[in-house]
Amino acid sequence: MYTSLHALFLAATVIVGTLTPSHARSLETHGNDNNNSDASALADYNILLRTHVDDLGFVDYDALHADPAALHAYVDSLADLANVPSVEDYDARLATLINAYNAFTLQLILDHWDQFESGQTTSITQLHGGKPWDQPLWNLAGQTVSLNQLEHELIRRDLLTEDGVVGAAEPRLHWAVVCAAYSCPPLRAEAYTASDLDAQLADQERRVLLADDDRFIQTKNNRVTAVTQLFNWYGSDFGTPRTPYLQHATGHRVPRPPPKHTQHKGTNTPPQPPPTRN
User: Fold this and answer.
1) Is 136 left (phi over 0), alpha (psi -120 to 50) or beta?
2) Alpha-carbon 25 to chain mean position
3) pLDDT per residue over 165-193, tens digit each?
4) Residue 238: closest CA among 250, 222, 223
5) How far is 252 from 126, CA to CA, in rounded Å?
6) Global pTM?
7) What is the pLDDT of residues 124-145, one digit of tens each?
8) How far is CA 254 from CA 229, 244, 262, in A?
């Protein structure tokens, strides 16, 4: 049974956690290059994604729950400091951190799958007192982190330029990180790698901003009329103002004042199956 990460859960407001300075320094300055990664665990995780995630971002959770070994092995491999590249190897580090976030999120779902399957739980926001992203559940390079710490203090922190300004490096990461909210981008059916990262992020950007899906972008008469809430939550990451990024990414004119943010109806409804594929 395929079930969308988007449809499973409510759109969520993200609350930033706090990673202690010593932990942040440890994760930033240690770790070896991509050649020392657990290649076997990553390869098996990649096969898992290709097997259980389709090109629309739907996950076969029944099959994944029945055979989670590759996911468990990859999650376990991320605890090894040697498997998290250092900041000097930017592409390898960013690919690894995105993979980690998405794998941890899949693991979080599997850890509570019996509740979802029985109908006891219908939203990720019902887990851990409504704050699953704030829970320090995940071992990354020997440090215990939450999903919020991973996203905001490590993945987005890597965007910092020499003058400390956020948003100048890689805004497309927001199309790759899947937080299990309705408004999140589709989960990619392959792992991110340093060698393919630019092409993968470009493809994710196209899938979100050029897709015929009004959750992400709405246009009329070749003008952008509404955009995903991600531009509201992480506006500075896309540059200030965000108009040049939007115009370049979509090929559409962006009027002034800026377009509104998309609103989603019916997000409290139970999960729905994906459309039938031809």
Assistant:
1) beta
2) 23
3) 554 468 899 999 998 766 678 899 999 99
4) 250
5) 38
6) 0.77
7) 778 898 899 999 999 999 999 9
8) 16, 8, 15
